[in-house]
Amino acid sequence: xxxxxxxxxxxxxxxxxxxxxxxxxxxxxxxxxxxxxxxxxxxxxxxxxxxxxxxxxxxxxxxxxxxxxxxxxxxxxxxxxxxxxxxxxxxxxxxxxxxxxxxxxxxxxxxxxxxxxxxxxxxxxxxxxxxxxxxxxxxxxxxxxxxxxxxxxxxxxxxxxxxxxxxxxxxxxxxxxxxxxxxxxxxxxxxxxxxxxxxxxxxxxxxxxxxxxxxxxxxxxxxxxxxxxxxxxxxxxxxxxxxxxxxxxxxxxxxxxxxxxxxxxxxxxxxxxxxxxxxxxxxxxxxxxxxxxxxxxxxxxxxxxxxxxxxxxxxxxxxxxxxxxxxxxx
Length: 330
Hints:
By secondary structure, the chain is mostly helical. The protein is about 60% helix and about 0% strand.
């Protein structure tokens, strides 16, 4: 069972490479942990979450039972199924997996229902989406950052392709690319045992997404100055700077901010779900970054044990990660 490490990077004689099962599974399980932890506070203000839970650091029931995942993780699982079976991001196949796994009660946004209907009716994968600037393309993409940790161009292209299935707006696309590239950088820094430099981390991502959407790049550059490890200060600064809603440009930056403000995986996710707004999605994206950087074993064991584990649950997802690594390596 995964156990939580201390705030500092653990000392190992040989750390897992940037692309490894430990980092891919860390990104996947981190996504699911953040998604489930943030689920009960979705749509609440930061103050309402604080009044109800104090520090939201245990799985709680909400519109779903405690430990349940939402649409964020369900669509991430579809990406993992594609990687495991194809050894790469095959957008046409992924579109079919989105349809096959679609469970409306998970909490999908309104526009996605029409997308699923069009895909099920045979519309091409790149023609079924809408001109949405929502965060749906970013919420699920973290595992691609870990899968393509050793290939910048493939990572960016895969992030764009999977997003185009549902979202066509430049802000939606840019958010997906930013999140995937951030997870890729987290994998590389974790493998090198380096602490992220906020300025370099953010500038690198902003520069790479500027050609996709200038507004998203500028929202990344608007990141407030945060002292690493100052959980309360990070929560206050991020929630004051960003709307933390379902738009891509206001959800991806605070997720990244939660990561660069933290000294351990748990803290990253706790900050993210405490910001209010689209807490399950911001938590999912922050969790992907934390799991990619600190690795699978850094995620709190109590959270992991509480996660939904049915037919397409926690263990199924981890098996997909193993298969994906083998498929790529083969």
